[in-house]
Amino acid sequence: MSTSDTTVFVVHYPPHRRRQSRDQPPEMRVVVLGWSVSENSLVGNFILGRAAFDSEAPPDVVERVAGRLKDRHVIVINSPQLLQTNISDHQITQTVRECVHLSDPGPHVIVLLLKHEPCSAEDQERVEKVLLSFSESVYQHTMVISTQEPTQTNHILQNIIQKCANRHFSLQTSSSPHDLLLTLEDIEKINDGQYLDCASVEKQASEKLSESEKLNLVVCGSDETLKSSISELILQQTDRRSDVELHGRQISLVELPALIQLSEEEVMRETHRCVSLCHPGVHVFIIIIPDAPLNNEDKAEIEEIQRIFSSRINKHIMILIKQNSEHQTAELNEETQSVIESFGGRHQFIGPKTQVSTLMEKIEQMLEGNRQEFFSTETFLEAQIEKLLKFEEMKKKIQSLETHVLSQGNEQKIILGS
């Protein structure tokens, strides 16, 4: 599977606001952007002074690690794929969202890790696109790091460094984390200790679309390639952005990784992440299945989605049936029909020439039926509490049954003994 077909995964403990006290060191949040997993890990580990990042981690993983350096509490958000030229605009937007979410309420410094070989005009364009996805004032908080001195002067590289107010740190064997920390703190001081406000670009976009309503969609399914193809199909018809205006609405699209491939901890983390990214909540979960009998993975994924999100998700689900040809199957097999009926019969065929507007019409009807309600983070947490209470209740029943069985066994022993 190519990089452009992958889904952004996140490995982290969700950020949380903490009250500052005199005993707590001041916090600094740093986002590291680059092309290479190994070099990004090298820089992240150098900042933290320990082996916190894996140099062999998948390139599409955004990771958040905290540590203490001198008298500072430092949080490093590592994103090693954002500057690669073979990832889509949709992936850029999603990954930037992850970085912003993990650096909540915003990063103090963005570290731009540039590759050794001479930069091209295409590289500069990619760097500028990624940085401006954070904020229009991003250069005030950005610095360039290189892991070795360039062998020749490159005007493109120099242009990028100049845009970052000539802030450039060369990571050599003689360098120390303390030297880099001083450079990071200088950037923080220039900005009066303020973090980068990453909401500015999104706010401007929302002002332009003030008359439209926001619609949050989450794409689900066991087949990652199938999900990516549907996402790309939607984005191709909407200027290839993850926040688009279509059918009079501002649409936000997020992909949910296949849950059956994750551990229980990862499942909880990824499902909560998806819902939290869709503020104030998810309007529609689109479950994508092929135009064929459901296989075991499809069934397991649908069951897992229902297990995690509970029955509260049912009214927010639309089944999307992917077809590889223009021909649309008039009849569904009994098993697929049963699954669709369990979600209120909401389904739509989508093929190579299907217009997204056709899908939107179905979704609009669905929203009217739901009175514009959404599946929020609060709804998600309530579902988890409900599951926990049911688990505790079942646990008590089992313990009560075990006690009853043991007491009966003891009574029989007494009778036999007498």
From TrEMBL:
Keyword Glycosyltransferase on entry: no
UniProt-recorded Gene Ontology molecular function terms: GTP binding
Matching InterPro entries: G_AIG1 (IPR006703), GIMA/IAN/Toc (IPR045058), P-loop_NTPase (IPR027417)
Sorted UniProt keywords: GTP-binding, Nucleotide-binding
Pfam family, one: AIG1
Keyword Transcription regulation in annotation: no
Ranges where the AIG1-type G domain occurs: 29-169, 227-390
Family from the record: Belongs to the TRAFAC class TrmE-Era-EngA-EngB-Septin-like GTPase superfamily. AIG1/Toc34/Toc159-like paraseptin GTPase family. IAN subfamily.
Protein name stated in the entry: AIG1-type G domain-containing protein
Native organism: Cirrhinus molitorella (mud carp)
